[in-house]
Amino acid sequence: MIQKLTSLDPYMDFIREINSDPVFSDPMLSTQENMSANLYRAVGKPDNHALGVFRGGVMTGLFVFLIIEDEKYIEMLVGLSRSAEAYEETAGYLQANYPGFQADFVFNPSNSLLRKLLAGKGAAFEEEQQKMVLTNPCPAADTSGIEPLTERYREQYIAMHETGCYWTGDKVVQTPERFNVFLAVENGLVIGYRDITNCFEENEPFDLKVKEDRRRRGWGRKLLAKAIEANRPKGMALLVDVGNIPAIRLYESAGFVRVPGADSLTATWNIR
Q: Within this chain, do residues 123 and 6 fall inside the same structural domain, yes or no?
């Protein structure tokens, strides 16, 4: 049975137990900042839905979803369960109530129960990612040619921004309270960008793109250095594909280290 929850206080033992399991822990709850943003502060917000799955009065699953009705979009903020039935019941709830929505899941790659369920639903999986945290920032670096987003470059930025994601360029420029944007500019032309969150104690370099014919010229390093500089004194963490060795080396050279046990897998399910 699924119940909507208005408080998580009675279920903190369940949350701690599942999240301490290396197989079923949630990478979205890997830090205190994550716990606060995705769990404690999430419950009670208008677009957030906390669901408890119960069997015989005992909780078997706890899920928090961001659900934006107007955009037909769902994001799993928290998913904690060791029960295949709990995952199946939750998926059934989403199918019954939100047909036609796109649902994004970020979860522990070791969680074979959720992986199997989503694969059976025809979800598309991205490459596994590892979490890295900035622990020892490199000294001030060259950031020449890097500028903050202004109205002058708005159209160029939006035109080159990735579109196959929720946070498109249009959405980013409409939420300055959430994102800072830095641009690589050459002869008045935008040749690259880096989006970074600004509203957390541990912010994330969110999206990066450099035009193909300008790559391997140090622009990615400059954009990262500017993001780090602007973010101080707050912390910084990021996700990078485990197979992207050049990017991992770049982040390591800038002072990032891998967080053991915080790897994640992202899957997108178009609910039918």
A: yes
125 and 164 fall within a common domain: no
pTM of the model: 0.81
pLDDT tens, residue by residue, 26-81: 998 887 777 887 788 778 788 999 999 999 999 999 999 999 999 999 999 999 99
Q: What is the domain count for the chain?
A: 2
Burial of residue 132 (number of CB atoms within 10 Å: 0-12, 13-18, 19+): buried
The answer to whether residues 122 and 7 belong to one domain is yes
For every residue of the chain, DSSP letters joined together read -EEE-S--GGGHHHHHHHHTSTTT--GGGSSHHHHIIIIITTTT-TTEEEEEEEETTEEEEEEEEEEEGGGTEEEEEEEEES-HHHHHHHHHHHHHH-TT-EEEEEE-TT-HHHHHHHHHTT-EEPPPEEEEEE-SPPSP---TTEEE--GGGHHHHHHHS--SSSS-HHHHHT-TTTEEEEEEEETTEEEEEEEEE-SSSEE-EEEEEE-GGGTTSSHHHHHHHHHHHHHTTSEEEEEEETT-HHHHHHHHHTTEEE-TT--BEEEEEE--
pLDDT > 90 fraction of the chain, expressed in percent and rounded: 79
